[in-house]
Specification:
Oligomer: single chain
Largest sheet: 5 strands, mixed
Strand content: 15-25%
Strand order of the largest sheet: 2-1-3-4-5
Number of strands: 5
Number of helices: 5
Order of helices and strands: HEHEHEHHEE
């Protein structure tokens, strides 16, 4: 499989001496030249919000058979449910009509090799301790369960009856459902 990652991206290899960001802006100009307003609003057609890891190996739309406008996608390191994810889900439900929530973690996640010591290392380096937790984990299934529980118990979310959690296998592309606690 060829991806844009197979194209050299270092400063010396950039097209026309530009940066990776320049390459993205150029790609956007080509996209915009052929762009047609799809005539949709911000409400997802399938009324679902997907919370997933930011890992570049997860092509969520392709893996889930989704099209533009089908869902809200909220991504972060680990796909964990944090206060900011609850904020986004609350807006998604209360103002934009979503009713279902799908949580997706994955095999081989980088958060499995981190610990909260990462925050201490940052503090030593920059002189300030981050206010946020790393949210590292060693058991991906247990972390999916914890994320489902955080969603189900949030007082801000109106619709918590259709919350399901999965682990995406980065080697096979298959989802495996995790039973709630």
């Amino acid at each position: 499989m060829t991806t844009s990652a197979s194209v050299p991206t270092g400063p010396e290899a950039a097209i026309g001496g530009g940066t990776v960001t320049d390459r993205l802006v150029d790609a956007n100009a080509r996209y915009a030249a052929a762009f047609t307003d799809p005539g949709m609003d911000a409400r997802p057609v399938l009324r679902v919000a997907v919370v997933a890891c930011m890992d570049a190996r997860l092509d969520l739309h392709a893996a889930l058979g989704l099209e533009l406008g089908d869902c809200h996608t909220i991504r972060n390191a680990g796909g964990v449910v944090t206060d900011d994810v609850i904020r986004s889900l609350t807006i998604s439900q209360r103002k934009l009509g979503t009713r279902s929530i799908v949580l997706i973690h994955h095999t081989g996640c980088g958060l499995e090799s981190l610990t909260e010591d990462f925050r201490t290392e940052l503090e030593l380096e920059v002189g300030q301790r981050p206010a946020w937790a790393v949210e590292s984990f060693q058991d991906v299934d247990q972390d999916v369960r914890q994320s489902m529980q955080r969603v189900r118990t949030s007082p801000f979310l109106l619709h918590t009856d259709d919350v399901r959690g999965f682990v995406f296998d980065v080697k096979t592309g298959l989802l495996r459902e995790v039973a709630p606690a």
